[in-house]
Amino acid sequence: MKKLLFSATLILLVAGLASAASNKMWVHVNVRDSAKEETVKINLPLSVIEAMLPMIEEEQLRKGTLEINDHDFKVEDLRKAWNEIRDAGDMDFITVEGRDGNVSVRIEGNYLLVQPQKKYENSKVDIRMPLPVVDAMLSGTGNQLNLTAGIKALRESGVKDIITVNDNHSSVRVWIDENNLGK
User: Fold this and answer.
1) Would you say residue 131 lies in a domain?
2) Which of 31, 94, 101, 111 is a Cys-bridge partner for 40, taking CB atoms 3.0 to 4.6 Å apart?
3) Judging by DSSP bridges, how do beta strands 38-45 and 26-33 pair with one another?
4) Strand stretches in 34-73, DSSP E
5) How many domains, in total, are found in the chain?
């Protein structure tokens, strides 16, 4: 009876660990520069980033928060504006059209989309951030962005592609999935 109980417990433990391992989320960054013939690939478990972020102690990055020390820009004001914008639903809320290119910032569905485009280059940039991630990052206090909460919200969002950039000579892709190979 003890052997059967021990075997069953061991099987459940191994199955649980295998299930947990297969559900691990990975952050992938793939940067290719064909002009320089270089490629950089980064594949890290999201849990490693979550664990390391509070340990980073730099001038403005401490304990998983980013301090914005700009006299013309206050995160507190950004929080207030974001709450108003977010509650308005789908909308283009920033459009900048210039001689060299355009930038569009909008809410579409459950995403904040940022799409800058240069007029004279064949380039495309897409940044897709789930709204709960923006909410979580703005959950800090004072002039702090809560990066730890943002990463946790990103994990829970189920979003895959976050940033894609393609132009004539290079590409950048940042995405999250359950594959440790970054393919």
Assistant:
1) yes
2) 31
3) antiparallel
4) 38-45, 61-62, 65-67
5) 1
